[in-house]
Amino acid sequence: MKIAVLISGGVDSAVTVDLLSKQGHDLTLFYIRIGNDNGEGDCSADEDIEMCELIARKYNLPLRVVSLHEEYWESVMGYTLRTVSRGLTPHPDMMCNKLVKFGFFEERWGHEFDKVATGHYARVIERDNRYWLATAVDPVKDQTDFLAQIDYKQLSHLMFPLGEFPKSEVRRMALEAGLPNAKRKDSQGICFLGKIDYNDFIRRHLGTRKGPIIELETGRKLGEHQGYWFHTIGQRKGLGLSGGPWYVVRKNVRDNVVYVSNGFNTPRQYGRVINLEEMHWITEDMFENPDVTSLKVKFKTRHTPEFLDGTITRTESGGFRLDSEADVQGIAPGQYAIIYTPDKEICLGSGLIAVTAKSKHDHKRMESENITHQD
């Protein structure tokens, strides 16, 4: 089979190459270069490419370094900045997979191959003559939540060989194969951003604007922030407040106010109802049958091995409501709820967490209850 393998210089994509090479496939390696946000190259990318070149030489395979710089910064980072500036919480990794790795790359180069393979921890399974996105064997490393916005056409052209292995086994295979990056640490950060600091990126593009940090229950001013766009619902770290833990529970975008609540068990940071819009089903619209009005599901609202039980219901307005059987911490508009089958095997799709009427009009409630900013 003729396969394009997306490699990053990390151990996961290198083991993917090793596995597919041993299976006898015809491989071409691709490294997607995006540079940084001022159009210059960056050292981390140069190091990654050197590692990719070592892998290519080891297996005597062609390596193509391709650029999607403009497409990445216009689509993924443009989306991120637009979302943050509206006071919402973006999911750049999800958009990167949907728009860049399996979008622009597929249109330019990937379509020339039988399949495109990556080092993601996920699986593609065939059932009832259709492809489905399935969770990885390793629940901690599973990355289906980052893939839950891809469409069926993209899914049907993908391979995720590592989905069948736990991370510890992948490391062992890397050492056994003598891969030059067998002991290289896993990359952290947003998609291709690598070592770029997220807050520095936001500051460079949106600047700073001081505003008050207010205790929601009392209206007492506790400190100052540098702009609501640096904070997300459910955030605990980086507030600079003593006497914590403090959690961000509301934001007033109009007045640049961040509201917090105190304590590990503060009810203000929890909820059980999640309203969804822009619902995206990967393989099958689970509500295509008009007689189906609700479904029992498992779901996640963040990258974690833990699943929650819930019921998703189609509303009269055309949106969806997700009712959780347990409290959900930090429900952040702009993020996504990832929907799975009750057995946790299949990722069905995802829906955008909507801005509710409650969050839109919180400042009006503050005024009606005569809560003021006390210095």
Topology:
Elements: E1 2-6, H1 11-22, E2 26-33, H2 43-58, E3 63-67, H3 69-85, H4 92-108, E4 115-117, E5 123-127, E6 130-134, H5 152-155, E7 158-159, H6 167-176, H7 198-206, E8 211-215, E9 221-225, E10 246-252, E11 257-262, E12 270-281, E13 294-300, E14 308-314, E15 320-329, E16 336-340, E17 346-353, H8 357-360, H9 362-368
Parallel strand pairs: 1-2, 1-4, 2-3, 4-7, 8-11
Antiparallel strand pairs: 5-6, 6-17, 8-9, 10-11, 12-15, 12-17, 13-14, 13-16, 14-15, 16-17
Helix pairs in contact: 1-6, 3-4
Description:
Helices cover 26% and strands 28% of the residues. It folds into 2 domains: 183 residues, HUPs (Rossmann fold); 168 residues, Elongation Factor Tu (Ef-tu), domain 3, CATH 2.40.30. The radius of gyration is 22 Å and the shape is globular. The chain has 9 helices and 17 strands. With 375 residues, it is an alpha/beta fold. Helix 1 crosses helix 6 and helix 3 runs antiparallel to helix 4. Strands 12-15-14-13-16-17 form a 6-stranded antiparallel barrel. Strands 3-2-1-4-7 form a 5-stranded parallel beta sheet, with helices on both faces. A 4-stranded mixed beta sheet has the order 9-8-11-10, with no helix packed on it.
